[in-house]
Prior knowledge:
membrane
Amino acid sequence: MPLAEFAVDFVFGGLYGALVTVIALLAAIPYAAWQGVRRLGRRFGGRQDGDARPGG
C-alpha cells in the first residue's frame, strides 16, 4: 500500500507529526465541546458569566 503510506506521510509528516497532531486533537476537541456548552448555556438563559441556572 504505497499510496496509503504516501498519504499518511504527506498529511502528518511522519510519526512525530502524527503524534503531535493526535495530542493536539485530544486537547482541542474536549475544550471546543466545553466552549460550545458554555455558549449554549449563555444563549438559553442564565447570566453572562456562564451560570445557566434559571432565576438567580
